[in-house]
User: What shape does this take?
Amino acid sequence: MKTEQQPIDPSLAQGCLDEYKKVYLGDDISKIQKAFTDAVIFSIEKVEEYLTELREKGIKGVELCLGVYTKEFQEAYPEKVSPSKIGRLTIFLWYPDGTVMNMKSGGDEDGDNGEVGGGDPDPVNFGDLIP
Assistant: This one.
């Protein structure tokens, strides 16, 4: 199933970023293997719209941040993220000043303070995970 990028809750996005750190800094190789994602595909049109919105607000750049889908994220967006995507790697777009935009990968099957997130607009996520 193809998914559309949309705004998401920044605290849920931050939870995915935190989970990424736990998985990849941990020593459980099975979690790292489960998280494997070769690529995340986003709609060119939606990304252009988002970047245009940022440019109009005077924002000069975005950060591409890695996250791992959590159960809480999936439960908040069950129509976008199937339960099989829990534990999978995804990408979030965040403003360098600490505000967040998340481009979430939903799947095709059916900051200066060290923390990313907060502020307006909400993060956006929901591209398609490959494989």
Summary: The first strand starts at residue 6 and ends at 7. The chain has one domain: 6-130.
